[in-house]
Structure formats: structure tokens, C-alpha cells
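yo, Enoyl reductase (ER) domain-containing protein is done. seq:
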Amino acid sequence: MAAAVFRSFGPPSVLQLEDDFPRPSRRKGELLIKVMAASINPIDWKTRKGEVPRFAVTRPKIPGGDVAGLVEEADPGSQFKPGDRVFGCNGNQNLWSTYGTYAEYAVAHEDSVLPIPEGWSFNEAAAVPLAAMTAWQAMQPSMPLQDKRVLVHAGAGGVGSFAVQIAKAQGAWVATTCSGKNTAFVSETLGADLAIDYTKEKFEEACGEPLDLVVDTIGGDYELRSLPLLKRSGHFANILNSGFMHQYGPVKGPVLLTYYTARGMLLGAISGPRYTFTIMKHQAQHGLGELVELMKAGKLKVTIHEVLPLAEAAKAHEISETGRVRGKLVLQVATE
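structure:
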């Protein structure tokens, strides 16, 4: 099968299209899926660059966890049958798995996918799972969000754009940080009540009253500046961000991340606000079903920054690494 594969760590150019990579083997309880579309998430290029524990990364590796496609094979008696349109996160963005979703075929356990809602394209569906489920799971400890005050950092990005919409769907007041070019997008398209242009104003001054929830996809000094804005009963959701690494480098950054995460959790347990560190669970029961209902109700929209063919996976990584993506990048693997 054709697949985008890296066999060594390095720049986007190490991610190469291979035409004869072996198909994944389906095990009991799994589906073999003909991939129609996959999407790019930061964990994909961080793994390729070696910004994760390299000893844990299986190589060769096909990146990707998000998938939308057609069931090719299923167990006898499965709730799914060949030809069904499904989407989900197969969890194989994890370091130790060879078979991600940047390929013509992928495997996923039955409990990690759901039928694609009527009217949604494969490209749209592929853009949802990992980012939207991460947002859902990060915010879940604070749900329901009715009448709560929420701050989402980087609201124009993948996780951030879903977090804004989920919070608004539940009746929260939502502020979000973004660049000046995205203020209209987060307000008019996503529904944020307050768009804060981080190049012109400090979010801690713009937010006004104390907050109930901060969803932080950036980290670093954003975390340190956000925590004092929370009520004692509030909640700080750290979404596996790399802000400290970007600000302080690969040696000091991880030390600071570990220190401030441990400090936040300890102080949160003693006196508040609550501090959580989100590691996304890929099974559909962890939010995908609720997201499908929002999709069906028209309360969750997908913004696709660009659709590229599988052969341009390396280019997609280049674009994603700029940190200037509005919504999601999608790889179109096949057409119906």
C-alpha cells in the first residue's frame, strides 16, 4: 500500500511516500479501514522530529491517529460491515505503533470509531477526532459549563477552535487569545464572546472578572499568567503543551514543565484551583459520541486550513510546524 513513512528522525523531508509498504494486519475486535482522509496533529511532527522520547518510537513509522474511511474488513457479527463510513482516532499516533493513518489502509479497534454523521465529508470527519476529543476531555471536569467564564488559549487552532465551540454549545461565556487576523474568525465563526489579540493586549487585563476554566494549549508563561485569573474553585486544563520547551530549550524546558505541572497539581489538590494534565484517550466513549451529537445539531463546525494529497504529507508537516494554521490540515488519501 502507499503510505507516508519516516525511517529516521529529522526535518519534514524524512517523511517520504512509499508505494509498497505492507498493509497492517487486522486483529480480533479491529476494523481494517480503507482510508479516505487523515488529518495532521502536532504530535505527528513532534514524533517525526524526535521531540519525544526517541527510544520509545518504533521505526519505520507511519504517523497519524485521525482517520475517516470505509470499512474494508470486520469481525463476523460486528456492529460494522464492509462499506460503512466511519471516523475516529485509532490511537496509533502513539510512539510505539508502526501503523498510523497516513496510508491507504489503517486498523482501528471497533470501540474507537463511529459512523460519520449524515452530510459530513470524509475530509471534514477526519479533522475532528483527536483535536475535538482532546478539547472535550480537557474541559469535562468542569462540565456542565452553563454560565461559566472560560478562557481558551489559541482559539483559532485545532484544539482551541473545538474548545471554543464546545464551551459555547454548553452556554459558557468564552474569551480566547489569537492573532489579529483571527479575531473576526473566532468571534463570528466560532462564537467567542471576547477575542483577545495577543499582539496588542494582555489577556490578563482583557478578561476582567475571575475565570472558572482556562484551556491552555500553549504553556510556558501563558500558564504562569493564567493561573492567577482563576477562581479558587476554578480549573486549569494543561493540554500537553510545549511552551516551556519552546521558551527555554530542550534541557531547561522539560525541567520547568515537570516542576510547574507538579506544583500546579499539588497546589490544586490543597487549595485550588484544580489543575489537570490532559492526555487524550482515543476510545469513542471518551467524548466522540457527544461530539457527534453537536455535529448533527450544527453546533460544531470544522475549519479546514488546507487539504493536501498523501504525497504531500511532508509539506503538511511544514505548514503545521509554523503554528499559523487556522483549524486543521487534512490529507486526502483517496476519493470516492
